[in-house]
Write a structure and sequence with these properties.
Strand content of chain A: 35-45%
Oligomer: heterodimer
Radius of gyration of chain A: 24 Å
Number of helices of chain B: 9
Structural class of chain B: alpha+beta
Largest sheet of chain A: 6 strands, antiparallel
Distance between the termini of chain A: 54 Å
Strand order of the largest sheet of chain A: 3-2-1-4-5-6
Distance between the termini of chain B: 53 Å
Number of domains of chain B: 3
Radius of gyration of chain B: 24 Å
């Protein structure tokens, strides 16, 4: 499907809405082709003992395979659909169809318009967005992704699986998931907006489990990128390495309160759950954000600056337009500790007579974006890097804790207050500026907004985790207990 | 639309065979779901999703591959077929295990669903009113009702199936549901209760006396108010009287999953190797079927085109049959039972339940209560945890302390724990009031796929159930 075809479907849809009496209408037309290959299993029969082939076979997830061979779970296909917003008397109706066949799309338009008619008018509604020229070039469209072969992905998987198992005899299970998405969309509305863009993404996840000395530990690695990455060996190795270094866990002698080093991976997990909610204009307007009334004031340590940039070429969230056809842009959020901007979509911006910052996004509960209504989300929210590697940060701490890897329970954080209490499975005791030993799973508690005011050091090791780009940090006044 | 989908299905199969597949099957789908949710008296969400597409599974060598497309043109549909075959070829090189299909008789049949007040004939306005009527009634019951959430859901359309052996089926799934949840508040105490009704029926079901929006709202509100005065359930072992809804969840969650063929093949189920063994008292039978008489979700065929048979998993206490797909049936040397289901066209079929329930016995419920000397009457469930060993923890929505055949006072925090295989041996009363319930809100989840299911049973009395254990 090319640009012209997607726009044509969109134009037919909004025209039909007008014929049905809609004051305004918008069609979001989306098509993607995806492949995911998932590979799970205990790797080497010669090491692990029992061969439980059938188990892997029938579940197609979980459990073992047999000696470097396995049964992958592969899912591949094409999905297209349209999300329609129809406005009648300041009330919005939304419906979606998982089809781009004309008669079905027009039925969806009828549904959306019908829904608009049974809803009460929204006093805050102004209008759908108008035409605006894009400022950026859009993101990466990598042909190596759109044209990749299942066979190729399977070979990559097998290779990584062997690497992970060969790293250490104590690795008993490896899981690898590789995914490619090639997507394009058009946002068309009755005010003349005809936005179109396309992009590719490549994701990889590596999980390892190790057993030793009566302990069982696990850890992993992740990659999210707009372009194809063939050399996955370093990440596969890192997943195994992270797992093995967690063996030999000891409890903390006593509850710890003080500076904690957060590896970029761990910091991202907390930050990406809590902070985007705080800078969402909707939450600020509806009094669900601590940043209400704080514009232009100091909200963090002076060394902290961050920017949401929907135009950076390699950014995972980069597109020419957002999901309602408004150009993506750069929005400084915090400058030298001062709150300088929050993120808007069309609805919240017009409510304050402002311009949208191009942060409308249709990721949501439904797996296909066309089945969700747009909400405010960061594009590429980057914390400006400081200096030093993770080891440099550790060397700054006389006695303390390093929180590494993935955290459990981050999703249960209080996104309104910023309070978090998570379990860290890959934490370490720091003594005399060096890692002393791994810690038994420990609870790490604090408040994210307070943490921004308790930053000690910002590292230089920035890494992209999708919509968030951040380095490792040292934060003071964090409570850790095992 | 139907002729277009069926046309593509035929061409897909031909294309797959031409490319060298030993077997090909296609699921076609044209369905829609509607969900309306109201909080207090305000309609919050109305979401309509229309789903159209085809999924294709091919067998090649000793493996198989699956792909899908919802762009119904030759380029995309043929590409899906080629991808499925490519996956099958790539898998077959890397696996040591054979996937084969048990033989079945071919079927050519189109089933239609004819009910009065089918949701497609009822206006959105009227459906919205069902929710608002519930909200209005519940809020009017008492000032202590602090919050009322109501919802209407529907799912209907056509599912097509065809394979290279000549089977060609279609049917029209239908599911509607209405629910209400009330939160009651007094001082710092907050409690909730809920009620709902659904099935493969027309919307006139909500005109029946027991299921009008007003009646269901009154029930939920009154049960919530009653819970404000409830005492915490005592911890320890007591006899339990279990209502049909809780019995249904026990049948499905803690027992049904253990009887799924894929789980048995891998030796992961505690029911593996127990065929013919006595697992429960002779009064206990557990069934799974597609077209039950007593309500539930109607399913004539599964997603391998196999008619949904009535499976007596547990027959008078004895393990009798497992639930099978064509693949697991082949591996277990059994007959396929019509239990292969996929969430939608974009997923491949796996072994799933349909309507799972404890069969009716001979006791009248009021006689069973009269004979109930001392214990807890546990009603419905708000969820819980189950493990693949059969161990479970369920929180009942409501409960009563019963002495000498009389409910004495309401309880809250009623939680039952135990292992289903032990519980089955302690069921000593099975009543005759079998009911099967189902809902379009959610469904059962397994390996990232959801499926609509029905669950049910009659009132059951069970000796020595462990209560408590919820923090």
């Amino acid at each position: 499907m090319d640009e012209h075809e997607l726009l044509e479907i969109g134009n037919k849809a909004v025209k039909h809405a007008q014929e049905l009496g809609a004051d305004e209408a918008e069609a979001y037309v989306y098509i993607e082709s995806q492949i995911t290959v998932q590979f799970i299993g205990g790797i080497f029969a010669s090491r692990g003992g029992a061969v439980k082939g059938l188990k892997g076979a029938f579940m197609r997830i979980a459990e073992p395979w047999i000696k470097k061979k396995g049964l992958p779970q592969i899912k591949s296909g094409v999905k297209a659909g349209v999300g329609i917003r129809s406005v009648v008397n300041r009330a919005m109706g939304f419906a979606s169809v998982s089809s781009i066949e004309e008669s079905k799309v027009l039925e969806g338009v009828e549904e959306a318009t019908k829904i608009a008619k049974i809803r009460p008018p929204d006093p805050n509604w102004v209008s759908l967005p108008g035409v605006k020229k894009p400022t950026g070039e859009g993101g990466i469209y990598d042909k190596r992704i759109s044209e990749i072969d299942v066979e190729k992905l399977l070979d990559l998987c097998t290779g990584c699986c062997v690497t992970m198992g060969d790293f250490d005899r104590r690795i008993v299970q490896a899981m690898i998931m590789l995914g490619t998405i090639t997507a394009s969309f058009a946002a068309v509305n009755t005010h003349g907006v005809e936005a179109y863009d396309r992009g590719t993404a490549f994701t990889a996840y590596f999980g390892a489990k190790a057993k030793g000395g009566g302990e069982e530990v696990s850890s992993g690695e992740v990659l999210v990128s707009r372009s194809y990455t063939e050399d996955l060996q370093p990440l596969a190795l890192s997943a195994s390495k992270r797992t093995i270094e967690s063996l030999g866990k000891k409890p903390l002698a006593q509850k710890y309160s003080g500076p904690v080093v957060f590896e970029n991976t761990s910091w991202n997990e907390l930050f990406s759950v809590i902070f985007p909610a705080g800078i969402s204009a909707l939450n600020v307007q509806e009094n669900r954000s601590p940043y209400r009334g704080k514009m232009g004031t100091q909200v963090a340590k002076e060394q902290l600056s961050m920017i949401d940039d929907g135009t950076m070429p390699e950014g995972v969230g980069t597109m020419k337009f957002d999901d309602e056809g408004v150009p993506r842009q750069r929005t400084p959020v915090i400058e030298k500790g001062m709150l300088s901007g929050i993120l808007y979509d069309n609805y919240t911006a017009k409510r304050e007579s402002l311009e949208s910052t191009g942060n409308a996004n249709r990721q949501g509960r439904a797996s296909s974006p066309y089945a969700n209504q747009p909400a405010i989300r960061p594009t590429n929210l980057a914390i400006q890097a400081g200096k030093g590697t993770l080891a440099d940060l550790i060397s700054e701490i006389k006695e303390g804790v390093l929180v590494k890897g993935s955290l459990t329970g981050a999703l249960h954080s209080n996104v309104i207050t910023g309070d978090f209490s998570v379990s860290a499975d890959n934490a370490f005791k720091i003594e005399k500026g060096e890692i002393a030993h791994p810690l038994k799973p420990c609870t790490v508690a604090g408040n994210l907004y307070d943490a921004l005011n308790s930053i000690v050091t910002i590292g230089g090791d920035s890494r992209s985790f999708g919509n968030i780009i951040c380095p490792s940090l040292i934060i003071d006044k964090i409570v850790v207990s095992t | 639309m139907s002729s277009q989908i069926e046309d593509f299905m035929d061409r897909t199969i031909k294309h797959a065979l031409k490319l060298g597949a030993s077997f090909a099957e296609v699921k076609g789908e044209d369905t829609s779901t509607l969900n309306i949710e109201a909080i207090n008296k305000e309609i919050r969400t109305v979401s309509k999703v229309h789903s159209i597409g085809i999924g294709v599974r091919v067998f090649y060598g000793k493996s198989n591959g699956f792909s899908f497309s919802n762009v119904l043109d030759e380029e995309n549909v043929f590409r899906a077929t080629e991808t499925a075959l490519k996956i099958a070829k790539a898998s077959t090189k890397r696996t040591l295990i054979s996937f084969r299909l048990a033989p079945v008789k071919t079927v050519q049949e189109k089933k239609t669903t004819n009910v009065s007040k089918h949701p497609k004939e009822v206006s959105l306005e009227d459906k919205k009113e069902l929710c608002l009527r519930e909200s209005k009634t519940a809020l009017g019951v008492s000032k202590s009702i602090a919050n009322v959430t109501t919802g209407f859901g529907e799912y209907f359309g056509t599912i097509y199936y065809a394979n290279s052996e000549g089977t060609k089926t279609s049917y029209e799934p239908l599911l509607v549901g209405l629910r209400v949840a009330c939160v009651a508040k007094k001082g710092t105490t907050m409690v909730d209760a809920r009620e709902g009704h659904g099935g493969s029926v027309g919307l006139d079901t909500f005109e029946e006396e027991a299921h009008t929006p007003e009646k269901m709202a009154e029930n939920a509100a009154n049960w919530a108010l009653e819970k404000l005065k409830a005492k915490p359930a005592p911890a320890g072992k007591f006899d339990a009287l279990v209502d049909p809804r809780l019995a249904g969840v026990l049948a499905h969650e803690s027992f049904g999953h253990l009887s799924e063929g894929d789980f048995v093949v891998i030796g992961g189920s505690p029911l593996t190797g127990k065929m013919g063994q006595e697992l429960g008292t002779k009064d206990v039978s557990i069934l799974d079927e597609g077209l039950p008489e007593k309500g539930g979700y109607n399913l004539p065929f599964d997603d391998e085109g196999v008619p949904c048979t009535r499976v007596e998993i547990l027959k008078k206490g004895i393990l009798n049959r497992y639930l099978q797909s064509r693949i697991t049936a082949k591996a277990l040397k059994a007959e396929p039972t019509g239990n292969a289901r996929s969430q939608d066209y974009s997923f491949e079929p796996i072994v799933r339940m349909r309507n799972t329930y404890f069969d009716a016995g001979s006791w009248k419920p009021d006689e069973a209560l009269k004979e109930f000397k001392r214990g807890i009457y546990a009603i419905d469930t708000a969820g819980g945890q189950v493990e693949d060993t059969g161990t479970f923890l369920f929180k009942a929505i409501r409960g009563y302390w019963v002495e000498n055949g009389e409910p004495k006072y309401p309880l809250r925090d009623v939680a039952l724990t135990g292992n289903i295989l032990e519980l089955l041996k302690r069921i000593d009363v099975v009543c005759n009031d079998l009911e099967i319930s189902t809902t379009p809100f959610g469904g059962c989840g397994k390996i990232n796929q959801r499926a609509y299911v029905g669950t049910g049973g009659p009132h059951l009395k069970v000796r020595d159930v462990l209560f408590g254990g919820v923090s």
